[in-house]
Structure to design on (244 residues):
């Protein structure tokens, strides 16, 4: 924000994973100029698909026009006395409006968000307590100024202490009926970017190194205590079998 003020830039917060995170007591979306939320099906709050942009009135009014065919609402208001059919297209806009049905889902989800978050925090605490002592597993970093949204719970394997790779670890979890994922595959490894820009895996050594050791464990409010216990036991079992 300091740099942005100095160079007259606008800051967009990517809050796709960050509802309802806080930094130094301030909610996500109270820091930058615009904030983009994702309400995709897997997110902490969902409308099935879509998202939301928040910010000051001037930027938001502009975004509204872009998001609905470039139609001017002002024109609508100005000419309403002539009949509701009138509108003006003042930009080559998009069709990025949220459908009412999605918004209705979102309003109900919003009421449930505190309970969702409380459950996410409980599960994270159980994972942290269970894995905190395992040398082979690095648990998510906690920073004093940050209240985490806990959209994902990503463990990092200390591969030099294990006889198996991350991919094999995932297979072992799968064999124990635990579904996991990897967030994310670095962009430079994807064929389009790799081939277009001639990237090698080690061109981004930190992203590549961390990519090879990350696993996202199941984390969602509907998990039962038994589900959480099953995940914990599976991870501890695999570490026990494959530690060096
Ligand atoms: C960091 C980040 N930004 C943006 C997005 C895109 O969100 P959406 O799918 O709502 O466009 C995602 C999706 O997960 C994301 O992880």
């Amino acid at each position: 924000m300091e740099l942005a003020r100095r160079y007259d830039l606008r800051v967009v917060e990517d809050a796709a994973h960050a509802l309802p995170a806080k930094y130094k007591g301030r909610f996500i979306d109270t820091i930058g100029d615009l904030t983009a939320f994702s309400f995709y099906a897997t997110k902490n709050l969902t409308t099935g698909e879509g998202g939301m942009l928040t910010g000051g009135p001037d930027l938001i009014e502009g975004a509204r026009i872009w998001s609905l065919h470039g139609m001017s609402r002002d024109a609508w208001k100005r000419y309403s006395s002539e009949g509701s059919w009138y509108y003006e297209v003042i930009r080559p806009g998009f069709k990025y409006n949220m459908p009412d049905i999605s918004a209705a889902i979102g309003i109900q989800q919003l009421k449930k968000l505190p309970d969702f978050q409380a459950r996410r925090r409980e599960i994270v605490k159980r994972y942290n307590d269970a894995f905190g002592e395992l040398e082979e597993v690095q648990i998510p970093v906690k920073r004093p100024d940050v209240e985490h949204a806990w959209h994902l719970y990503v463990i990092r394997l200390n591969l030099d202490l294990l006889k198996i790779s991350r991919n094999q670890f995932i297979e072992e979890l799968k064999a124990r009926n635990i579904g996991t994922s990897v967030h994310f595959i670095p962009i430079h490894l994807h064929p389009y970017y790799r081939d277009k820009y001639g990237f090698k895996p080690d061109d981004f050594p930190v992203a590549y190194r961390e990519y090879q050791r990350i696993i996202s464990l199941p984390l969602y409010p509907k998990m039962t205590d038994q589900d959480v216990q099953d995940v914990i036991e599976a991870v501890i079992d695999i570490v026990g079998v494959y530690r060096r």
The longest helix spans residues 100-131. The two ends are 46 Å apart (CA to CA). The chain has a mean pLDDT of 95. Residues 63 and 114 are 29 Å apart (CA to CA).
